[in-house]
Amino acid sequence: MITRRVTLAIFAAFLLFAAGCATAPRHGTLRGALSAQAVNIDGKSYIPLTLIAGYYQAKCEWDPVARRADLIKGNKTFAFYVGVDYVAINGKPEKMASSAVFYEGLVAIPADFAIEEISKVLSPPRITGPRPPVTQKYMIRKIVIDPGHGGNDPGAIGRTGLKEKDLVLDIGKRVKEQLTENGVDVVMTRDRDRFIPLEKRSQIANESDADFFVSIHANSARLKGARGFEVYYLSTAVDDNARAVEAAENSFLKFDDSSFQRHNTDLEATLWDLVYTENRQESVELAKYIAKAVDGSTSLHNRGVKSARFYVLRGSQMPSVLVEVGFISNPAEEKNLKDPAYRQAVAAAITKGILNYKSVYESSNGFTQ
Fold first, then answer.
1. What pLDDT shows up at residue 354?
2. Among the three residues 98, 121, 144, which one is the final residue of a domain in this structure?
3. Domain limit, last residue, from 60, 90, 121
4. Contact, 102 vs 20, CB < 8 A?
5. Which of 104, 230, 324, 328 has a 20 to 30 A CA-CA distance from 77?
6. Domain range for residue 257?
């Protein structure tokens, strides 16, 4: 499976250093891997610090109060401050071409500094011999499909009566059928109209030992002109729209007698934060592939990839995304979503995104090329 299982004992060890900075991903075998991972932010090239940590087999720590991300290897340290164009190298300040920034929930630094300057202080691990072949841990075998709402929780309801719970169950079944045809084992959190508590949905996913979790929903807004498709991964909501969707999808906690919140002690919250960080990079990648496939295969307006703290994603110990297939509150989109052929097209696009992600992930040995 693609995610690394981390026990509570290991979590306790993680508590010895600051929670919140992304765990270093699997390192690549070529220095050029850093250049290949550069992203464009406001016309400038950046690289997420977690990728750099993985390449150098270094440790990454995050101080949310100081907004400082530290890259540490042995007695050598780099301290980056979000919004500041200086870095402290072993305590000595050095100027960078531009400031460190947040990028999709991660700290990113200027690519030229990451590629040229860090290598002067840190040495990448020496790797000899041919690259090892793709192994079982880089294969995607099983996926959990989670149709939102159900039973006494109808979810959003369209102007002509279309219920979110019915719509997403139908699309979820179609996605399952198509994935199964492509050799992927699929587990459904529900396959009929029944209510499943949020905590139980996560439990189903975790106990199935799945590789990742896809929750399917439909959006709603007071403005009937709101339209489009969007994919979320678990992180702090960064805009008003994301916060509104977060509040709407979390609102059905009132139907949940088990109350996920009841078990949320400070210790458990810290441990879960580490799980989120562990899987965030893969969740972001999966979200991008699904959004791209839907954009290229349907007439739906692409609202992009976003982040929010959805409770249904919070408990899953694997890369997870939440898909909003359109606005049930928009008359035109509600009409389309009532059409079985249109639902089939949406399901096909979601499936295509998942399979494209699967293909690239497996062929690149877990994005380490």
1. 93
2. 121
3. 121
4. no
5. 104
6. 136-363
CB 231, CB 308: distance < 8 Å: no
**Residue 86 covered by a domain:** yes
Ramachandran quadrant class, 318 (left: phi over 0; alpha: psi -120 to 50; beta: rest):
beta
pLDDT band at 353 (very low <50, low <70, confident <90, very high): very high
Token pair, residue 207, equals 């106990």
In single-letter form, the type of residue at position 363 comes to: S
Query: Sheet holding 106-110: strands in order across?
Result: 39-41, 44-48, 106-110, 101-103
- Asked whether the whole model's pTM tops 0.70, one would answer no
Calpha distance 50→109 (Å, rounded):
10
Which pLDDT score is estimated for 179? 93
Place of tokens 């994301």: 242
Cα gap 214→319, rounded to integer Å: 9
Q: What is the pLDDT of residues 69-100, one digit of tens each?
A: 899 998 999 999 989 999 999 989 999 999 99
pLDDT band at 258 (very low <50, low <70, confident <90, very high): very low
Please state the domain count of the chain: 2
Sort residue 311 into left (φ over 0), alpha (ψ -120 to 50) or beta: alpha
117 and 209 both lie in a single domain? no
17, 41, 113, 258, 304 from 148: Cα distances, Å: 36, 34, 44, 17, 20
Taken as a whole, the chain contains a residue count of 369
* List of E strands, the chain: 39-41, 44-48, 59-63, 68-73, 76-81, 86-89, 92-95, 101-103, 106-110, 142-147, 185-188, 212-219, 229-234, 302-308, 320-327
261: its two tokens: 């919140």
- Domain presence at residue 7: no
